[in-house]
Amino acid sequence: MNSLPIDRINTHDKRFCITYPLEDASLCASIQKIGIIQPVILLDTSPFIAVTGFKRLEIARQLGLREVPFITVDITEQKALLFAIHDNIQRGLNLVEKAHALERMLHFGFSPEELSDTLNILGVNSHEKIIKALVELASAEDSLKHFAVAHNLSLKNIQRLLRFEVNERSSIIDLLSTIHVTESTIREILEIFSLIKLKNDALPLDIFPSASSQELLKKLKAIAYPILSSLHEQLHDLRRTSALPPNIDIKVDPFFEKEYIDIGIRANNEEDIYQALEKLHRLTDERIIRRIFDLTKGNLR
């Protein structure tokens, strides 16, 4: 296998690079142990330009390797980009890499038919809105890309993030990176952030450091829905005051839009029912139940 000094390769030219991120601890450990097995593909120019193998080149540079195994090709830029895309398809591309592939295909002037065919191979719908979102993602800041890859974000959640200004989403990403979040939790948090911005024309991000996603959601809801949040707080206090046993549950509509409550009793025998009814009767005498009914009518204390 032929080797080439790295300094003969223009490693700054990444016109065919769709890989993201370039960091790969497993590959680095492998190369450090046994070297580079698979040659990089280079466009036959002077200096040479990488077509595939950007991770290998980056790791070789970090490890101080002087040479890399290589193969040269004499092809057009469009063909070279297709080489890069198909070389990576076998491992599966993340959403950022698909965005990079699309953005570069547009840059190199691929026809609509060629774009559609390649996007189909990548498993991407060629709808105009999806293409627009992917192009925007391709040019977005690294913090968003890293977050998207690390959390395997859906395109929907990426689109929600892209609606914010760069400084806003940077702060949101910093915030979300400190707590455990799921795809659905991220969606809910971003939707509430959007509502807060719509109402206040700003995001008070400085007050949001939180220990958990649920704590963050609680803070956000208090700002986005102050009356609803207050109703939930009072309901929580009433439930705590009533000291309900585990076999009794009192539920209200989560948005307090229905003026009734649901009372559930779990019983293993008749005695459980008698005790539950006795407890509910005491709560009625103490006007705890009446105060819960008041909350369903939106009456705050």
Strand order of the largest sheet: 1-4-2-3
Form type: elongated
Class of the domain at 1-92 in CATH? Alpha Beta
**How would you classify the helix and strand content by structural class?**
alpha+beta
Strand content: 5-15%
Major β-sheet annotation? 4 strands, mixed
Care to count the β-strands?
Answer: 6
Helix proportion range: 55-70%
Written as H for each helix and E for each strand, in order along the chain, the element string is EHEEHEHHHHHHHHHHEEHH
- Which radius of gyration do the C-alpha atoms yield? 29 Å
Unreliably modeled segments? none
The helix tally amounts to 14
Features:
alpha+beta, Conserved hypothetical protein from pyrococcus furiosus pfu- 392566-001, ParB domain, four-stranded mixed sheet, 14 helices, 6 strands
Q: What can you see in these coordinates?
A:
There is one protein chain. The chain is 56% helix and 9% strand. With 301 residues, the protein is of the alpha+beta class. Among the domains are: 1-92, Conserved hypothetical protein from pyrococcus furiosus pfu- 392566-001, ParB domain; 226-296, no CATH class. Strands 1-4-2-3 form a 4-stranded mixed beta sheet. A two-stranded antiparallel sheet has the order 5-6. β5 and β6 (261-265) form a beta hairpin. α1 packs across α2 (54-63). The longest helix has 18 residues, at 183-200. The mean pLDDT is 91.
